[in-house]
Amino acid sequence: MSTQTPRLEIRNITRQFNGRAVVDDVSLSVMPGQVTCLLGPSGCGKSTTLRMIAGVDMQDAGEIYVDGKLVCDTVFRIPPERRSIGMMFQDFALFPHLTVAQNVAFGLKGRAGDHTARVAELLEQVDMDGFADHYPHHLSGGEQQRVALARALAPRPAILLMDEPFSGLDNRLRDEIRDHTLSVLKSAGTAVVLVTHEPEEAMRMADEIALMRNGRVVQSGAPYNIYNAPKDRQAAAFFSDINVISGEVQGLTVDTPFGQFLTPAQPDGTRVEIVIRPQHLKIELDRNGTGPSPTPENGVAARAQVVRARFMGAESLVEFRMDADDTTLTATVPGVFLPRPETPMWLMIRRDRCFVFPQGLVTH
Ligand SMILES: Nc1ncnc2c1ncn2[C@@H]1O[C@H](COP(=O)(O)OP(=O)(O)OP(=O)(O)O)[C@@H](O)[C@H]1O
Ligand SMILES: [Mg+2]
């Protein structure tokens, strides 16, 4: 256990609008140099959470601490500008009448002339050197975004709050700027809360992901853990397409075309869903109607026909119709393989990659 004090800690914060809790009992802590991603669908309360941490909105319950010191509860409140918190919001706005360099220098104390070196360093970090004297309306959306990032980093905040900061950038630039930004923030010991609704972005950036739904954190943990041990079907589905095989519990197991699955602690008659990601379906060619033998790792093979196969570059997406019950399942396979429709094949599922949930289970 680390005894370090979190740079940022929020405890049980709640925010209501018109009697509805849009942020509901959320707690988080972020260590220096760590990135926590708030990940969740539109409207789940991500930006509202950030606004309370920044101090531009106030919670109805709960407390916020920076380096172990209370900055805000429901009676006491340190104003936003004294929290050492930098912000880069979804609707960031550069000052139109200031040049790029003046925008970046805006939050720095002292005389404008003192900041030339720092501004140049920041512009280089975001790959915008050469634009110092340009005005915002001459920049593309992505360029403006990078200037806004430099402006947020300029005062070396202890905590940086970022709301979808990379959404306007094209792919190549985005990966480069993300990685670069991360290394700058990590070396400065900045604690980052990054809001995104893209799982790939969260997995790439985060030390910890807090998965939000309806104002609550439903699961949090390292990207690896949250991807490989989702709490419910929706949490699994947030990170990739999923296949769902339904069945009913009898004697602690459920029968499926892929053999029996254990269903710990569910009474007989409970409907359960076995969830499996497309890359964990294994496929084999049909050899005169016989399939591969059952194995403990992959269970029983079940026969299916290709409905369609789509080439996606590195991989192909193959949709199957199961012989047993006409349901469809999707597998991703290496892109060199692109079977024709109606090809009979055998499917197996990786037992160790399945998640079994009671049907309708939703974590609150
Ligand atoms: N000032 C407000 N008054 C009333 N309702 C609000 C207010 N601010 C936010 N809401 C509501 O709170 C909910 C959460 O909003 P929030 O902006 O935090 O969502 P989000 O997770 O950031 O979504 P997105 O990914 O679309 O940006 C939404 O239903 C929104 O309409
Ligand atoms: Mg938002």
Automatic annotation (TrEMBL):
Name of the protein this chain belongs to: ABC transporter ATPase
Top-level taxon of the source organism: Bacteria
Signal peptide: none
Matches recorded under PROSITE patterns: ABC_TRANSPORTER_1, ABC_TRANSPORTER_2
CDD domains: ABC_Carb_Solutes_like (cd03259)
Entry keyword ATP-binding: yes
MF annotations from Gene Ontology: ABC-type ferric iron transporter activity; ATP binding; ATP hydrolysis activity
